[in-house]
């Protein structure tokens, strides 16, 4: 979802620091599974739809996190790749659109061709 506002909470890319003095950074972002486990478990018909080529699309008009138990979050194989924004009651997941790469001021983001069968 591109919310058109600067918000770490609404970002579809989560970066978490792990460890002590020598921190490791763990990136949680949708990997674009070819058979996404999050879509079929959603109890709201049409809220999360698999995309051709991998990944999912969240239909913002249909998704309503107040009407489910966040099954998509639990089903995802990447912890933190899907999260629910409680202010707008929508699932947040990367669309693999590349906008973040274009506007990343430090140039650390890149779009990569997946290797293997996610």
UniProtKB/TrEMBL annotation:
Q: Which InterPro entries match?
A: 4Fe4S_Fe-S-bd
From which source organism is this entry? Answer: marine sediment metagenome
Domain (4Fe-4S ferredoxin-type) spans 19-53, 84-114
Protein's name according to its UniProt entry: 4Fe-4S ferredoxin-type domain-containing protein
């Amino acid at each position: 979802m591109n919310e058109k506002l600067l918000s770490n909470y609404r970002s579809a890319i989560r970066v978490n620091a792990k460890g002590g003095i020598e921190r490791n950074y763990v990136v949680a972002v949708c990997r674009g599974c070819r058979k996404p486990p999050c879509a079929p478990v959603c109890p709201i018909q049409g809220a999360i739809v698999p995309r051709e080529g991998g990944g999912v699309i969240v239909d913002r008009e249909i998704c309503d996190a107040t009407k489910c138990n966040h099954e998509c979050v639990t089903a995802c194989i990447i912890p933190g790749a899907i999260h629910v924004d409680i202010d707008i009651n929508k699932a947040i997941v990367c669309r693999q659109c590349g906008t973040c790469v274009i506007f990343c001021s430090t140039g650390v983001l890149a779009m990569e061709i997946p290797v293997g069968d996610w």
